[in-house]
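ok so I'm stuck.
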Amino acid sequence: MGDSPSFLEDLSARGLIHDTTDRAALEARLAEGSISLYHGIDPSASSLHIGNFVGVLMLRRFQDAGHRPVVLVGGATGMIGDPGGRSEERNLLDEDSLASNVAGIRSQLERLVDFDRAELVNNYDWTKHVGVLDFLRDVGKHATVNQMVAKDSVRSRMEGEHGISYTEFSYMLLQAYDYWWLHNNLGCDLQIGGSDQWGNITAGVDLIRRRDGDHCHALTWPLITRADGQKFGKSVSGAVWLDPERTLPYEFHQYWLRVDDRDVERFLLQLTLLGVDEVAEIAAAHDADPSARLGQQRLADEVTTLVHGAEAVEQAKLGAQAMFGRGDLSVEMLGALRGVLPETVVSAGDLVGEDALVNLLVATGVTASKGEARRLLSQGGVSVNRGKVDAETTLEGAVIGQRYLLLQKGKKLRHLVVVDP
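replied:
not stuck anymore, here's the structure
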């Protein structure tokens, strides 16, 4: 398993340690051998997003170091909402929706965590039958209101415009109960999470100590932010999802290619499994020639491989080469654009004749009328397979691999034509 303190040193070198309850004690516990640890995920959607990625990757880092991760989906706590960073309470999830979301999340987790050596649990399973009197007696009496109000996540909401409901105020106790239950039933001695979870996590540490006299551990990482001020995991169109149907692998890869130069080294350290020394080499090469964007390319390749696999990276690169590259197009490049670009299926006969291009522009919706198509062609505003065309251009022989044509209007509007053999 390697030297356990060096594992924490590696996390520290990556900027992935914000707080620990007692670092020396945690290092000593890790040195004793494999530890069971857990990280909680909100199952309010059927897919994880990039904001969840650092936490799942932390579980993978611990697993690679020989430890046993437990992934908790918060079926119970997700119903009421964590007060930290929110201004509204969550909607109640019914059991069918919850089961569907958990199934979607698990399929993504399986790419990143080996469930032969890990476990996925749902806190709804052990809280749904707990009565309010039992909860108040076994959990509530071990926490003081003074302690709870002192937590940043609670205090900030109390001081805010809308205040905090008792429902959300109780979230901390439910999360503390999770840690107690996992410690007693699955042997979890460590909970990890983002720095905004520190108050909730330490509430669990306190509950275990007060109720059982056991000493458990907490570790948080800094919240990942972007240098341009935007929230990490967001794009112009919204959240960047790990589900390939919500965010196409091509778009996912492109997101990382657009990362700010100031974020490259930090993201390579925190969001990939590359070694710290290798990241330093990549960062040095990137700084020597920022215009080559070597750091962004490596970041996009590494993160997309982790989430979607190596084949998705290859397809994303082929698609980008088709749209933005130079030189000859190939059937593989254009095939990689299926699902990325709008497409129209035509027959080979539709591409024959002197008006075929005009008709095709209308059929694909690239232009609204034949008159607009002819005007655009006369102005040099149309490209076929990246080459400028005019009204006299015929399409015989232009089909790539007897299968695809790439239409382009202006600089940005592209449309894939698929020829039905």
